[in-house]
Amino acid sequence: MRYAAARRKADTEVSLIKYLGSKRRLVEHIVADVECCSGVRTVLDLFSGTARVGHALKARGYRVHANDHNAYAHVLARCYVAADARAWRGPAERLVAELDALPGRPGWFTELYCERSRYLQPANGARVDAIRARIAALALPPELEAIALVSLMEAADRVDSTVGLQMAYLKQWAPRSYQPLRLRLPALLDGEGAATCLDARAAAAIPCDLAYLDPPYNQHSYLGNYHVWESLVRWDEPEVYGVAMKRTDVRTRASRFNRRGQHAAALAGVLAELRARWIVVSFSDEGFLPLDDLRTMLAGHGRVREAGIAHPRHIGHKIGIHDLQGRKVGVPGPARNREHLFVVETGAAGARSRPRTRRAAGISRAPAAFPD
Asked: Which helix (H) or strand (E) holds 343?
């Protein structure tokens, strides 16, 4: 490892929002795999989500470019990957302290997410309204604005009344929702990085030594699961639908990766655009794409190594399946699933990844960087 253990503490402090698909349990395995790839200085994280992986790689000294097409994820990446703490820590500390002192002033956010629905207690919703309105009024530099927005997003997440998804809220207020909303400075890192908010196929053309892909793998949309954070960041007072008060654009901004019939073509299109010597792919055994099909697809781009890691399924499995009256029905699937990590060596650095035959590429099922 490149950095002392004390420096690594930041890995466990980043992106505290409760997030289905977060690589919190797998991040050390992913980073270890990257560190086993020779000649890597720049990393492209194409589906950055919480930016947890990008943050961990930046902490190890890599120059990371994080991309995600959702606004809230782009803000997380700008804060945790693009912002250089040497330039922004001082101004951010002062700004966070100023914002944290603001009294609540209820507005559209409170009405929509605290009164018409129950994601936050109204008093905390009023704080969100006041703080977010102040951030908008200040016309801050992009990095400083992102730091402030992440501080607010994470503060709201600590006092919300959900199980971690915004598909619904709890019928009774969660105990944590009674705590007052308080801002904290995010875990900023020294060093340069970059963040974009592009379609994955467009971002795949960005040159890098290694590309890390953690694409959506089933029908569950991250925009639908975290629509409240999208509205907080965009601050656009959206039209909504349903009891969950989802943004109407959840219906129109669907990703091809969330559609069974389009998933394979979407992933193949991204792989075809990559300009990286190394590709690391994280994929669940519960995904639309059968693992054998994924192995064949990746083998067309180079020699493949693979390892699988078993871990508990998401919180929905523990809750079970219920009907509209709240009665438990049905039987959930297995309590654990497996995340598969693939490492592909594509060939010459800086060249586009060119498909090769499976025979020429070869596949090794033996893990090289971490145990099964």
From this structure: strand 336-345
State which amino acid sits at residue 198: L
Q: Is residue 144 part of a domain?
A: yes
The residue ranking higher by pLDDT, 97 or 224, is 97
- Give me the pLDDT at residue 331, please: 57
The whole domain housing 313 covers 5-364
CATH number at residue 167: 3.40.50.150
Give just the sign of the alpha carbon dihedral 27, 23, 47, 218: positive
pLDDT digits (tens, 9 = 90+) for 111-133: 999 999 999 999 999 999 999 99
Nearest alpha carbon to residue 250 among 221, 228, 217:
221
Q: Which among 171, 174, 146 has a CA at the least distance from the CA of 160?
A: 174
369 in any annotated domain: no
Total tally of structural domains belonging to the chain: 1
The model carries a pTM of 0.85
Could you tell me if 307 and 369 are in contact, meaning their C-beta atoms sit under 8 angstroms apart?
yes
**Smallest Cα–Cα separation from 71: which of 253, 271, 205, 299?**
253
Pick the closest to residue 241 from 191, 313, 167 (CA basis): 167
Cβ-Cβ contacts under 8 Å for 123 (sequence gap 6 or more): 104, 180
Neighbours of 246 (CB within 10 A): 24
pLDDT tens column, 19-57: 665 566 789 999 999 999 999 999 999 999 999 999 999
25 within domain boundaries = yes
Candidates 109, 48, 56, 97; CA nearest to 234 is 109
Q: How far apart are CA 235 and CA 340, in angstroms?
A: 37
Q: Which residue would you say has higher pLDDT here, 44 or 326? A: 44
DSSP secondary structure letter of residue 81:
I
